[in-house]
Amino acid sequence: MKKVIIFSLFAAAVLLLTNCGSVKKMVDNANLVKYTVTPDPLQTHGGKVAVAIEVKYPAKYFNKKAIVHATPYLKYENGQTDLRTETVQGESVTENFKVISYTGGTLSYSDTATYAPEMMRSELWVRGDASVGKAKVNLPAQKIADGIVTTPLLVCKEGKPIMFNDNFKRILPDSYQADINYVINRSEVRPSELKQDDIVGMKDFIGKTATDERIKLKDISVSAYASPDGPVPLNTKLSGDREGTATDFVKKTLKNTKVNVPADKEFFKLMATPEDWDGFKRLMENSTIKDKDLILRVLAMYSDPDVREKEIRNISAAFEQIKTDILPQLRRSKMQVNVEKVGYSDEELKQLVSTNIDVLNLEELLYAATLFEDLNTKLTVYEKAAAKFPQCVRAANNVGYVQVLLGNADAAKTAFEKAKALKEANIITNNLGVVALMKGDYKKAEELFTAALGAGDEVNYNLGILKIMQGDYEAAQNYYGNSASFNSALVKLLNGNPTACYEMLRDLKDECAKVYYLMAVSMARQGDAERMYNALSTCVAKDASWKKYAVKDIEFFKYWEEPTFKDTVK
Known about the structure:
3 domains, CATH 3.30.1330.60, Immunoglobulin-like, four-stranded antiparallel β-sheet, Serine Threonine Protein Phosphatase 5, Tetratricopeptide repeat, 14 strands, elongated, alpha+beta
């Protein structure tokens, strides 16, 4: 019995040594296994790092009885992140793993890791072990790719809110109308007419142009009319005379109020209408005169004034009422004084904001806010407008607009929600999307931006931000179109056009350090070292913090060991 046990142990030991020797060849020849990584270097898209590996095993490498466990992992300073472990087996193994033939074979592998900032300068390695029976050995770890390209993370995440415009107009037209009525067949201006409210009001209106420097007299029109009864020659003379007496009255008023009349020949606009058939028709349509429909048909049937008058007179009962209710209203001169009201200048508005803001009306406040570069002052003016005019959706929205620019997401949301309660508008929907973007709620932001499409180019810009963050660069390009911005240039680079990226950034004339950094990246991809160094030097001169970023950025991998690069980022 002891001999049998001893023999069994000996046989097992021999088998183990045989297996170890067999599997050790896989360790010794591990460098013959070829790894092709796509992409290389690795890239981050939408917050993920996708890894695709094709493993090629040479002939006579993979032991027919071996099982291999392989684990790719990202290795970086002070840490590593393991990817999914893959198991493969030799052709004589009865397990259910992917089989690698003794004559050679390939394995396709893919997995995704969540990107973290510490992974920026990392390497992709693979480690594993091989076993044949109870014999197990560790395969040597191998570096198979570099990583990680993080250029998409340069996206400017600051969304663009939309401001409601003001309706401020510095020069506003205004006018005043008054009528002088005449007795039948007469053209004299009766004293009683000059006591009518509209005439008294017109005198005061003209007088203000002499005393108020913000009211400029533009022109005066006088239109005189005769009623369409009586001979045309008589009515022609009457309308002309009435034009003259009305014009004389206006000139006398100008003189008495000491208003300087412009020398422009077009200042007085004069017109005489011998027979006011249009006025007659209008009054008839609005009257309750019996047979008015018949009279209106006469007007439609005949264009000759004499025929019209004759046919209307034949309707005797109606004509008697026409003589008392209609015709007297047509014997008149209509005067219209046109002026321009000149509002506050920009400097006056800015001064009033500081000294007497309460005198400003809504449009003046909304416009005045745009005159200030300082965001806190701008906010103060909009808040004043919102408090003074609480039903104004524009004021409420614009408070939120400035709060976004100040980085105050909660205050901006409060203002936008108040504006939304006053009125549903795509502009406000976009702005609430900007707040969601600020708070990191990207799903909500996309819903709101999509609902706000059509509100302006800002919406497309904001959706472009999200598409870059999602790694959908083609969609981002569709949203940006031909518009020029940092993000639009970034998308061109991410879609494989570094030259277009560089040219757009150059033409932006934006002196931001980040702009020069992306210019450097675009030229690094082009292999244009001179322009790359020029841009990178300008970048770090403006903001030295980019030095630490560039040292880890694999976009500059080819330059890391160059003295010029080291000097630039030291």
